[in-house]
Amino acid sequence: MFKTIFSKIFTITLATILLSFTFAGVFLYNFLGNYIMDTKGAMMQEHAEKVRELTALLLDADNSYVEKLYFSTLASSSDSLQAAVFVTDTTGMVVISSGTYNAPKVGTMIENHITKQVQNGETVREISNFGNGFSQQVLTVAMPFIYKEKNNGGIYLVASLPEIYSSRAELFQKFIIAGLIGLLFAFIATFLLSKMFSRPIRKMKAIVEKIADGQFEERVSIKSAGELMELADSINAMADSLSQLEEMRSSFVANVSHELRSPLTSIMGYIDGMLDGTIEKKEQEKYLQIVKDETKRLTRLVNSLLTASRYEDKQVQLSRGIFDINELVRVTVLGFEAPVTEKSIEIFVSFHSENLFVKGDEDSYKQVVTNLIDNAVKFTPEHGKIKITSYKAMGKVYVSVNNTGTVISREDMKHLFDRFYKTDASRGDKKGTGLGLYIVKNILLKQGQNIAVQSDELNGTTFTFTAEPAKSETK
Questions:
Q1: C-alpha span between 264 and 267 (Å, rounded)
Q2: DSSP 150-208
Q3: Measured at the alpha carbon of residue 142, what is the angle toward residues 140 and 144, in degrees to the nearest 5?
Q4: Residue 94: in which H helix or E strand, if any?
Q5: Do 401 and 374 touch, CB atoms closer than 8 A?
Q6: What 3-state DSSP class applies to 384?
Q7: Which of 36, 195, 291, 312 has its CA 20 to 30 A from that of 391?
Q8: 304 Cβ contact list (under 8 Å, min separation 6)
Q9: Cα 471 from chain centroid?
Q10: Residues facing 351 on adjacent strands
């Protein structure tokens, strides 16, 4: 029970309507009772005043015409109100009676708290059994009969409550009929609306199950608005992300397999050759050196993969220290003395200020600078030039590494920072892993910074990354 959204929406909405209808019914039932009682009492009091006036007129005129009019009016009031109408003298004896609706007969002596209040000049309106004068509850309206400024008795109108309650029951019955019709329409409307709201949700559930099953090409398409459309867009965005992630995963597996297969194949081939005697002993030292180089290549690949994984992990937080980026560049350049000398490359370092302090993880920026200079040395031809500059502009610190050599094509530019991507110029490079620039990009993104590249025949290739300037000029 209540396992589906449809059943929950339908049940909750229907229960709310039923509770509201019940509350309205109870309220209306009580309201009708009070309203009818108040209205009936007011009408009875109005008729009592009329009877009092006619009684005074009857005593003053003392003729048959007035008497006939008086008793006709008394009977009319009794019938219209469905009430007993009678008049008593100062002793409480009935002197005039309508004779209907259990009205006491003329000559009956009435003594109770109501007659005493009337004899004291009070007007009474109450629900009681009229001092045990009636077997059931009645509504009584009584007032003193003032004639020639003296209290000469009382005017009484007594109505049975069942007649009053029957009016309420009749009105309430009409409310119940109208309510049941409204409830039927509400039931139908709730059913249709619940279906309408649950249909796209069921559709999205089916799509999500397919996506969870690996069908990332599935997309949610619903004709709706508001939160449901936002949810559908979120699911589609999730599917896009998962699809891209799956492509990256497949590409990663393929690239790692390719990068591992080549050196492992070489290592196995050379070792087998030495073991089966294909490679003579005098040549073995040469091939062992090749095996060592391939092993180093595998080590670099594994280390690069671990580094890339570290910077991809959102849980890993980098430190936020203050350091001199110019000093970091100087120390890093010194580490490339051997390959630079071997290729007779000229390195120019240009700083706009002696010191330039930035805020960030120093070891990570060391990795960035090392990878960029390593790339520059690798792709700069013999007797080429490398220029490194740093400057501060528009609230950012910029560091550029420029080198002469082969221009990077526009197509290569699009994938330059992708994992395992190598340009055509670097396909024969066995030292590279295709992860250097990918790691650089991830390091900078993790610290809220970025990197850009420009490459043309006139200026060569320039990589420029940003860093956050430190407020203090000291470590």
A1: 5
A2: EEEEEEEEEEEHHHHHHHHHHHHHHHHHHHHHHHHHHHHHHHHHHHHHHHHHHHHHHHH
A3: 170
A4: strand 94-97
A5: no
A6: coil
A7: 312
A8: 433, 435, 436, 439
A9: 40
A10: 390
Least Cα distance to 333 among 347, 344, 343, 345 occurs for 347
Question: Distance (Å, rounded) from C-alpha 196 to C-alpha 272?
Answer: 70
Sorted by sequence, the CB contacts under 8 Å of residue 271 that are 6+ apart come out as 291
Q: Give the pair of three-digit tokens for residue 201.
A: 């949700």
Tens of each residue's pLDDT in the chain, 475 residues? 556 666 776 777 777 777 877 777 777 666 666 676 788 888 888 998 998 888 888 888 878 888 888 888 888 888 888 889 999 999 999 999 988 888 889 999 998 989 899 999 999 998 888 877 777 888 899 999 988 888 999 999 998 876 666 666 677 677 778 777 877 877 787 777 777 777 777 777 788 888 888 787 778 777 666 677 777 788 888 888 777 777 766 766 666 676 667 678 878 887 888 888 787 777 878 878 878 877 877 776 677 666 666 666 666 667 788 999 999 999 999 988 888 999 999 999 999 888 899 998 888 898 899 989 998 998 899 999 999 999 999 889 999 999 998 888 888 887 787 766 666 545 445 455 567 788 888 888 888 899 999 998 888 999 999 999 987 554 4
In the 8-state DSSP scheme, what is residue 428?
T
Burial class from Cβ neighbours inside 10 Å (0-12, 13-18, 19+) for residue 406 reads middle
Cα atoms found within 13 Å of the Cα of residue 321, Cβ hemisphere only: 10
Residue linked to tokens 């039927």? 184
Here the contacts of 108-114 (C-beta below 8 Å, separation 24 or greater) are 114/140, 114/142, 114/156
Q: At which residue do the structure tokens 């280390």 appear?
A: 303
- For residue 137 the two structure tokens come to 């509850």
